[in-house]
Design brief:
The chain is an alpha/beta fold and 239 residues long. It is built from ten helices and six strands. The protein is globular, with a radius of gyration of 17 Å. The chain starts with 6 loop residues before the first strand and ends with a helix.
Length: 239
C-alpha cells in the first residue's frame, strides 16, 4: 500500500495498460509499412506474427524507434506515418478489448483525478474510450501530438503536463500505471524533474503485469510496484 502521504492522481498509459491494442496496432502497422515502403510485412520479423510484433514493441522505447529500427522506415516516413495513423486506425475493424476489471477499478477510484499519457493519438484514445463509456473517468488525455518528438517518453514532459492539469502540481504521491520499461523510466524522470523544480511530488511507477509481454519480471528495471490484475491497484492505493 502507498501510504504516509496522499495520492493526488492516477495516470495511465493506454496501449497494453487500459486496452489490449496489440492486434489492432499490429495490423495497422503492417498496412503503414507496406504503404510507405512497398515491403511485404511478412518479410519483416517484427511484423510477421503478433508474437513477433509484441517482442519488437518491448525492444524499443517508442513507436518512432520501432518504425525506424525494426521496419526500415526513414525518419521522414515515420513522421508521415504518424500523421496518417488516425486514418488507418479508423479503417481497421480489429477489436481492441479493455482489460478485464478496468471499468470497476475506475469506478472504485473515482474520487481521484485520472489522466492518460500515451504515445498513441489523443483523438484515437478519446474516441475508443468514449465508445466504451469510459472517457468520463479521465480528466485529460495526453497523446503524442501534445509533446515534441524529441521529448516523448521516457522524457517526463507529457507526464508533467498531465499532472499540471490534474492537480496543479500539488504535493503528494502520484502513480503512473504502464506496461513498458519506458513507463518506468518516465515516472522516475518525472520525479527527478519535479523535485529539481522544487515540487514535493513523487511519481511511483506501477507495472501493469497483466498484459501479454509485460509479465512480472519482464522489465529491465523493476517498477516501484507491480500489479497482476487491474483490481490490485485499488488495494495498492487504499489497502
Amino acid at each position: 500500500m502507498i501510504d504516509q502521504r496522499p495520492v493526488t492522481a492516477v495516470i495511465w498509459d493506454y496501449d497494453g495498460t487500459l486496452v489490449d491494442t496489440r492486434a489492432k496496432n499490429w495490423g495497422i502497422t503492417r498496412q503503414l509499412v507496406r504503404s510507405f515502403t512497398g515491403v511485404d510485412p511478412d518479410t519483416i520479423e517484427g511484423l510477421r506474427s503478433l508474437d513477433g510484433y509484441t517482442s519488437a514493441l518491448h525492444r524499443h522505447h517508442n513507436w518512432r524507434s520501432l518504425y525506424v529500427g525494426e521496419f526500415g522506415m526513414s525518419e521522414e516516413m515515420t513522421t508521415d506515418a504518424g500523421r496518417r495513423w488516425t486514418e488507418f486506425h479508423l479503417e481497421d475493424a480489429t477489436a481492441a478489448p479493455v482489460y478485464e476489471g478496468i471499468d470497476g477499478v475506475l469506478a472504485q477510484l473515482a474520487t481521484l483525478p485520472h489522466g492518460i499519457v500515451s504515445a498513441n493519438s489523443r483523438d484515437n484514445i478519446r474516441r475508443s474510450l468514449a465508445d466504451r463509456g469510459l472517457l468520463e473517468h479521465f480528466q485529460i488525455v495526453i497523446g503524442y501530438e501534445e509533446v515534441p518528438a524529441e521529448r516523448q517518453k521516457p522524457a517526463p514532459d507529457g507526464l508533467i503536463l498531465c499532472l499540471e492539469a490534474l492537480t496543479g502540481l500539488a504535493a503528494g504521491h502520484v502513480v503512473y500505471v504502464g506496461d513498458h520499461q519506458i513507463d518506468i523510466e518516465c515516472a522516475r524522470n518525472a520525479t527527478a524533474a519535479l523535485r529539481a523544480r522544487g515540487h514535493d511530488i513523487t511519481v511511483f511507477a506501477v507495472g501493469a503485469a497483466y498484459g501479454i509481454g509485460a509479465e512480472l519480471g519482464a522489465w529491465a528495471d523493476d517498477p516501484d510496484y507491480a500489479i497482476a490484475s487491474p483490481a490490485e491497484l485499488v488495494a495498492l492505493l487504499h489497502g
